[in-house]
Amino acid sequence: MKYPPRFICCSILLSLTAAVCALAEETEFTIGPDYADAPETKVQEGVPQGQTLEFTMDSKDSKIYKGIAKDQKGTVPYQRKVAVYVPSQYKPGDEAPFIVAQDGLGYRGTLPNVLNNMIHEKRLPVMVAVMINSGGGDSKGSQRGLEYDTVDDTYAKFIEKEVLPKISKDYKIRFTADPEGRATMGGSSGGAAAFTMAWFHPDLYRKVITYSGTYVDQQFPANPKTPHGAWEYHENLIKKSAKKPIRVWLEVSENDNGHDRDEASLHNWVMANQRMSAELKAKEYDYRYVFAKAAGHTDGRVTKQTLPGALEWLWRGYKAR
């Protein structure tokens, strides 16, 4: 059967439109094995530079995290460093959207550059970044482990009640209360902490980025409500809970921690993140999953290639109230 030229043209256009739509809806990606820093991670000529303010928080001033380590004299004090990026376009008193980055000083050389360039290009809103370190140590029994690997809302409360108010008071920054204008990110246990903040408080955070997220069993002390720690997210919590209004971008690397360990170990980061992706997909979450070939745990090459795109996807469609 022969079709008129106009019909053929329309058919071609419809086919192309369908292909573009299908591409736009793609949710899972494989990248590597070669990597290159995104241009947005570099200082660019003619782009206004924001300022980064740094300060230290003492454990003695915290009512939430007094310290997990003890010696003969009692609780051992500790400090955490915090860096706050403020874009040049921010006007004191304005309500600012923002992102909280766990293990934040590790992003000190990258995140401000990305925000400078993408805010200037109007690809991101005029937003503040709170780059905050943990109280130190790693894994079970450490202050960092307590803060990041605990599956409850304590860490989100710490940020909300102790960190943001201090920054607002000291630097005259007004943080938005709109959960759509609040994002959180991190790598490894810092990534698990970011997801936990949004999971328990979607009324506060609805945007999440995780690199090599520690969705494994590292919770200490044990909690009978979540006996497998953050492994519970993909094992039980996501599938058994009502869908939450959060958007999640997550990455794992081919040679990530525990990639050659079995399921019984509850310590295979690749398996954990693949299952997170599967559960988010099954529950129809707004998510993106990236698998990085020939890369390792929280691989800096991956971060520097993908962070600008991850942020742009995370904030797409955002409009300040």
Question: What can you see in these coordinates?
Answer:
With 321 residues, the protein is α/β, with parallel strands linked by helices. It has a single domain, classed as 3-Layer(aba) Sandwich (Rossmann fold), CATH 3.40.50. 33% of the residues lie in helices and 20% in strands. The chain has helices at residues 5-24, 111-120, 143-149, 154-171, 189-200, 232-240, 269-282, 300-314; strands spanning 28-31, 51-58, 70-71, 74-75, 79-86, 95-96, 98-102, 128-132, 174-175, 182-187, 207-211, 247-253, 286-292. It has a 9-stranded mixed beta sheet with strand order 1-13-12-11-10-7-8-5-2, with helices on both faces. A two-stranded antiparallel sheet has the order 3-4. The protein has a two-stranded parallel sheet with strand order 6-9. The longest helix is centred in the N-terminal third of the chain and has 20 residues, at 5-24. The radius of gyration is 21 Å and the shape is globular. The protein starts with a helix and ends in a 7-residue tail after the last helix.
- Report the C-alpha radius of gyration, rounded: 21 Å
Q: Give the CATH H-level superfamily.
A: Alpha/Beta hydrolase fold, catalytic domain
**CATH fold description:** Rossmann fold
Please describe the biggest sheet, giving its number of strands, its sense, and whether it closes into a barrel: 9 strands, mixed
How many helical elements? 8
Work out the count of structural domains: 1
Order of helices and strands: HEEEEEEEHEHHEEHEHEHEH
The best one-word shape is globular
Mean pLDDT: 93
Unreliable parts: 1-23
In whole angstroms, the N-to-C terminal distance is: 55 Å
Strand fraction band?
A: 15-25%
At the first level of CATH, the class is Alpha Beta
Q: Tell me the total number of β-strands.
A: 13
